[in-house]
Amino acid sequence: MTPNDVPIPPYLRRRPRDKRGYPVPFVVARDPKSGAWLFAAIDPRAWQQVVHGHRCAICGRRFKNVFQRSEGIGVGEGVWFIGGGACYENRYFLDPAMCEPCARYAIRVCPYLALSSYHRSLDTAFVERGLGKIVHASAPGKPDRFMLACTGGYSVRTVKGATGALETLVYATLPWSVVEWWRDGKQVGPALEHEPPQEHPGLCESEVFPYGEDG
Fold it and tell me: Fewest C-beta in 10 Å: which of 48, 134, 139, 157?
């Protein structure tokens, strides 16, 4: 799929485009020297903005009907996540939540998600300088298929990653209401037959902030 093969969601049309014509997600990092967008990296400041400001990671729109829950926030319209099988089971994500139109656009158009032969690369020095986080770092390697799933809320937790270092990740706190499996930009199967356990051990949980209006 090319950027123009699938209609771009209205809020996403406001975002800048890269030289290939792809809309640039809100959380994508930018090289301060060349000005190039680095789709393989997340801007840590933008990550904080969308997670604590209750915004879509791709278009930057604030979610509607956000309310406080004991374990984090709830979102009346639901939020969407994309990840591999490990994310389905443990519910942890580095990539923040998305609105449904942006999530469905990404799963069909993003080369990393929609082309099984596509692999990202990134100058590790950029990450080591603290200018970006590697996308999908919480699940090393590329999955053979991706989950597109909806849940009613999330929290932010700090846990030990695969290397033993602490990672701050987004945790889907409520049961999946929709789960689809995708490969090469096409839906390939339904959800697994069981809902995974709702709690997964974490070391601490960050503060979450109340209601944010649409904008």
Answer: 48
